[in-house]
Amino acid sequence: MGIKGKAYLMGAFEHPLRDAPDTSTPQLHAECARGALIDAGLTKDDVDGYFCAGDAPGFGGLSMVDYMGLKNVRHLDSTETGGSSYIVHVGHAVQAIAAGKCSVALITLAGRPRHGGRRPGAGMAPGGGGGLTDGPPEAGFENIYGGSTHNTYGMCAMRHMYEYGTTSEQLAWIKVAASHHAQWNEHAFLKDVVTVEDVVNSRMISDPLHLLDCCVVTDGGGALIVTSPEVARSLKRPKVRVLGAGEAPKTPLGGQGLDLTHSGAVWSGPRAFEEAGVTPGDIKYASIYDSFTITVLMQLEDLGFCKKGGGGKFVADGNLISGVGKLPFNTDGGGLCNNHPTNRGGITKVIEAVRQLRGEAHPKVQVANCDLAIAHGTGGSLGTRHASATVIMEREG
Questions:
Q1: Are residues 67 and 173 in the same domain?
Q2: Where are the alpha helices (DSSP H) in the chain?
Q3: Which of 174, 269, 360, 383 could form a disulfide with 355 if both were Cys (CB 3.0 to 4.6 A apart)?
Q4: Cα(180)–Cα(182) distance, rounded to whole angstroms?
Q5: pLDDT tens digits for range 237-271
């Protein structure tokens, strides 16, 4: 059963805080939920489906349903795929609505990595509780060497440079584009516009990635409301229809299938485009998960916006800057400049896509005639063990 047109994104909210020393993670979830419900014109009593991931504390969805007083939930989903979790959840919410499991789905994300939560990029211990078998199955073979997210992404960037001649200057253009957008976002963590020279002259973190090639680390969160067509028609808000979704894991299969130059977008993207009945050339705006600059470049290639190996040339000279380039991306500043709450920040990609489709982005970055958008995320370690998710949306009416 396809999901095209089976549900609508009717509420979206991004928490304004980027530093929350005095706000608990459950409170952030609840405040995001309230914001999205107000945006949609609904109340918590209308919610009958709840979706969250590993950032939800305690027993996850069960704890949050209790904490937020969601009395009418009849469908619960706590799928965890890292940074792509919340793009996965949009697809799952539409599937649940299409199957009659719920009619108003609430999706929330929140975290406080600046104040005690797990920071993005931290390597996992070989095991917990005293044994190698207590951690993930790969931990005893890989993490004992001190691996971290930064190292893995650095390897992807270095391999891409070796295979295709990509340069640090080309990667830097992705950060430059994000900074041009973030300057107009009053809540962005980094508001200063940077240059290519600023990026390549910032200190090295994991060769060839520099400090400014890396995303910010923020507290905060966000929430989305997905509804049935019947509920959507009853609300006095712009309608954003979900056209297609795709998800796919990518693993190195114990080293037998290791290719550092592509992501799971090579599978999730075509599935979403096929279901939506559109092509990459039709897309007016792209929200692309940007944990690092190399993440964006590889996903743009794998989604079909340019050929494999052509990402460096595609992003150069400002082609991602709204009003200037061929494909405006992450007009809120993205994870590179605006907001990356927990290591599962994919929800902000959907939020900004909704803003663009509604015509509610900042006037300086609003894409003209934006009627078709894509949100894409990857969770885990780019190029090795991760999950990709893609959602395509359109403005209705």
A1: no
A2: 25-40, 61-68, 85-98, 139-142, 149-164, 168-182, 196-201, 229-234, 265-276, 293-302, 311-315, 334-337, 347-358
A3: 360
A4: 6
A5: 999 999 999 999 998 877 777 889 999 999 999 99
200-224: pLDDT as tens digits: 999 999 999 999 999 999 999 999 9
- 397, burial (CB in 10 Å: exposed 0-12, middle 13-18, buried 19+): exposed
Q: How many CB atoms lie within 10 A of CB 28?
A: 25
Whether 98 and 190 share a structural domain: no
Q: Is residue 130 part of a domain?
A: no
Distance CA 220, CA 393 (A): 25
Q: Alpha-carbon distance 225 to 228, whole Å?
A: 10
pLDDT at 343 over 80: no
260 and 187 inside one domain: yes
| CA atoms within 13 A of residue 359's CA, in its CB half-sphere | 9
Mutual orientation of helices 293-302 and 168-182 as an angle, nearest 10°? 100
User: Do both 205 and 100 map to the same domain?
Assistant: no
Closest to 347 measured CA to CA, from 38, 115, 28: 28
Domain, as residue range, for 156: 146-216+243-396
State the Cα angle at 40 between 37 and 46, rounded to 5°.
55
